[in-house]
Design brief:
Length: 101
């Protein structure tokens, strides 16, 4: 898919303080529409990837989402006071405390 410009606003804009309010509002509206279009394209690309994945490996997306739900639940249930300290910063959360120093 070819890369598209994120907005149609020219690069060499005059000083915003000198622009009439109407032009600023129009530019803001164009930017909002541009960002909305960008997110719609991203959603379409993700959907295409999911469909392709499911065609090549049936059930893979469902399994991914199941694993993701479990991971999110585990993340939300973890101790919020379990911060990484300089002593154990090189280890992941599962191995902290399981090895002797």
């Amino acid at each position: 898919m070819p890369v598209q410009e994120s907005s149609t606003i020219p690069e060499n804009l005059p000083d915003p303080k000198l622009l009439p309010t109407v032009e600023v509002d129009e530019m803001l509206t164009k930017i909002k529409h541009s960002h909305g279009f960008y997110y719609q394209v991203m959603n379409l690309e993700v959907w295409a990837l999911v469909e392709t994945l499911d065609e090549l490996f049936p059930g893979a997306w469902g399994q991914f989402m199941t694993n993701r739900q479990v991971a999110v639940k585990q993340f939300l249930q973890r101790d919020p006071n379990c911060a990484v300290t300089p002593k154990n910063s090189g280890k992941d959360a599962e191995t902290v405390g399981s090895e002797e120093d």
